[in-house]
Specification:
The protein is built from 6 helices and 16 strands. By secondary structure, it is α/β, with parallel strands linked by helices. β4 (98-105) and β5 form a beta hairpin. The termini are far apart.
Length: 277
């Protein structure tokens, strides 16, 4: 029987506007994580480019087959013999649209799975910040559960975190670990990051691995950081601060079964009708 125990690591970044420099920094921290014993390493959303949109975004994005950052990460996964989740890369899919795409890379460098962010961050925040992700990015349409040697992995990205139905579907579809790579804003992170991630873990009885961007970026954006690894019972197993770093925790998937046995809500769905008197 395959082992149900492995070490997961989050790489926290502060990506800038230079793709090559971002890839170099991410690669350095991935090596650090592997050197410390990680079997599975995850990086944040927008790992190799922090551009919100406009000409700069399109000038620096290319098709998947042409992306040198993706090629470098595939080579690194093969060199280190590690399972590597690149939280997301901006991948050009047309002259006017980009995909926010997560890549699960196998220890031989193959792309084991890819997921396009489903929910677009289109919001106006109280401090005057405004985001319209759908202006430049195409929303994904498929939820993905991939197979790791230890169990099922459900892929999500950042704003997906606010849509619990997605996480429930992933858990009911075989996920025991959920990834939530993110670049949460400082404002929304302070208010909701910990609460939402712990809730998703508790609701699904899954481990949650959430690598984040943190700090003040070259383009002026402020992200919250605080990468987290959370148990199926909602316990925080590892947490970062704001600066780039690596955190890790041992994952024992036997605890997924124990948590779900204590609260078997994934098997208690019932049909209902909405009524407004």
């Amino acid at each position: 029987m395959a082992s149900k125990v492995f070490t997961a690591a989050c790489v926290q970044l502060r990506a800038g506007q230079d793709v090559a420099r971002n890839v170099e920094e991410a690669s350095r921290l991935i090596r650090e994580a592997k050197g410390a014993g990680a079997d599975f390493v995850a990086t944040p959303e927008t790992t190799h480019l922090m551009e919100l949109g406009g000409k700069a975004l399109f000038a620096k994005t290319v098709a998947q087959d042409e992306d040198q950052g993706l090629a470098a990460f595939r080579a690194l996964a093969a060199e280190l013999k590690v399972w590597l989740l690149i939280g997301s890369l901006s991948i050009r899919i047309s002259q006017t649209k980009v995909a926010n795409r997560s890549f699960l890379l196998a220890p031989d460098g193959a792309i084991a799975a890819a997921y396009d962010k489903i929910h677009m961050f289109d919001v106006d925040l109280a401090d005057g910040e405004s985001y319209r992700e759908s202006k430049n990015f195409v929303a994904g349409t498929q939820a993905i559960v991939a197979d790791l040697p230890w169990g099922g992995l459900g892929l999500t990205i950042c704003y997906d975190l606010r849509f619990p139905a997605l996480y429930r579907a992933l858990a009911q579809g075989g996920a025991q670990i959920l990834t939530a790579p993110a670049a949460f804003t400082q404002q929304t992170g302070e208010a909701h990051w910990h609460i939402l991630l712990r809730a998703r873990a508790i609701e699904t009885g899954c481990f949650v691995v959430a690598p984040a961007q943190g700090g003040v970026h070259e383009n002026g954006r402020k992200t919250y950081g605080h990468s987290l690894i959370i148990s199926p019972w909602g316990e925080i197993l590892a947490e970062a601060g704001v600066d780039p770093c690596v955190i890790s925790a041992q994952i024992d998937l036997e605890s997924v079964g124990r948590a779900r046995a204590r609260i078997p809500s994934l098997t208690h769905d019932r049909p209902f009708k909405l009524f407004r008197p």
